[in-house]
Amino acid sequence: MIFEQIANGGCQSYFLGCADSRLAVLVDPNMARRDDYLALATRHGLTVSLILETHTHADHVSASRALAEELRAEVAMHPASLVPHAGRRLKDGETLKVGMLGFKALHTPGHTADSMCLQMDDRLFTGDTLLIGGTGRTDLPTGDAGRLHDSLFNIVLKLDPALSFYPAHEYKGRVSSTLGAELVDNPRLQKRDRADFVEMMRSLGLPPPSALAASLRANLGSGRSDAELKEAAPRVAARNLHPRMALVDLRGPDAVAASPIAGARHIPLGELEMRLGELPEGELVLVCETGEGAALAAATLNLLGYKTAKALHGGMAAWRSQRTT
Ligand SMILES: [Fe+2]
Q1: Is 247 left (phi over 0), alpha (psi -120 to 50) or beta?
Q2: If you measure from the C-alpha of residue 263 to the centroid of ligand 1, how many angstroms do you get, rounded to a whole number?
Q3: Helix H or strand E segment including 10
Q4: What does pTM read for this prediction?
Q5: Distance from residue 248's CA to the centre of ligand 1 (Å)
Q6: All residues at 6 or more sequence positions from 14 whose CB lies less than 8 Å from its CB, including other chains
Q7: How far apart are CA 176 and CA 191, in angstroms?
Q8: Is the pLDDT reported for residue 83 higher than 80?
Q9: Could you report the per-residue pLDDT of 266-323, keeping only the tens digit for each?
Q10: Kind and range of the H or E element at 117?
């Protein structure tokens, strides 16, 4: 077997080749290393036929869509994933084979709802479910600390302690670890009580990834640019606002204090994707000063499954004119 680990900053991806079939598999390819995967395939004389994504990435742009198009490779993800170009869905317990390489999917939600670990013989690709000395965070869209606890302690850590695992993030240059070593040394795994684990994750207070919303749009948006997504975003005119619609004010605190919108939920634009749990129920109307930021935010929410989110066309000027007529 050919095995290459490709790092881009803290992001880890993997190139696996089968010498018999001359086929290769990529795990979590990163757009920043696209050319390196192509060079590896050429150097080893292999054809990439499968791209496995352990989950929907929210901190970098995946190369899966671009490489799938370019190489006519299949992209496989868990059925819970909203990634539109993942044509193959791998259910929990299902095994996918490429030549002599076999990958068994273990659904391990928590970091995201669509997180999977992939077991291949003597190694496990853990995505962001389990990291060396850490775990994935659970405060990004679809994250859930309780589910991560269950995935770790009821699934991953029940596997053979001697199993080597390879994470999707590693920041200190380490290549792999074993499950047994993590059970002893990993600080996050010392909180084995579910409530304690959830409280530990809740109290981490991590800053959002720098390119969170843009990464989500790139990975979920079928190759459309931000300008295209914004252009196509659903909008509502101020005259068509209805009491059943739930207003979400995306302006900064100073603007809101100066001219509040009665009844609106206030979530500043830069915090929206980290605070999805605070969104009101029902038909969402996003409001910002000009309507443009709200349009892009509505596009992002739609990609994340909030199919009724719309932007108030014309922003606050439209809102104010409606109030005075
Ligand atoms: Fe992740």
Answers
A1: beta
A2: 34
A3: none
A4: 0.94
A5: 27
A6: 3, 4, 5, 6, 26, 27, 28, 125, 166
A7: 22
A8: yes
A9: 999 999 999 999 999 999 999 999 999 999 999 999 999 998 999 999 999 999 988 6
A10: strand 116-120
pLDDT at residue 290 in the model: 96
Ligand 1 geometric centre to CA of 299 (Å): 21
Distance 136 CA to ligand 1 centre (A): 7
Tell me the CA–centroid distance for residue 140 and ligand 1, in Å.
Answer: 9
Tokens of 166: 């390879």
pLDDT (tens digit per residue) in 217-248: 999 999 999 999 999 999 999 999 999 999 99
> Where does the pLDDT of residue 153 fall: very low under 50, low under 70, confident under 90, or very high at 90 and above?
very high
Span from the CA of 60 to the centroid of ligand 1 (angstroms)? 9
The pLDDT of residue 149:
98
Closest CA to 284 of 266, 303, 311: 311
CB atoms within 10 A of CB 290: 12
DSSP 219-284: HHSTT--HHHHHHHS-EE-GGG--TTSEEEE-S-HHHHHHSPPTT-EE--GGGGGG-GGGSPSSSE
> Residue 57 — very low, low, confident or very high, per pLDDT cuts 50/70/90?
very high
Q: How far is the CA of 133 from the centre of ligand 1 (A)?
A: 16
Ligand 1 centroid to Cα of residue 160, in Å, is 24
Domains of the chain and any CATH numbers: 2-202 (3.60.15.10), 224-323 (3.40.250.10)
Of residues 219, 304, 273, the one with CA closest to residue 31? 219
Ligand 1 centroid to residue 235 C-alpha, Å: 30
100 CA distance to ligand 1 middle (Å): 28
In the predicted model, is pLDDT for residue 325 greater than 60? no
Distance 171 CA to ligand 1 centre (A): 14
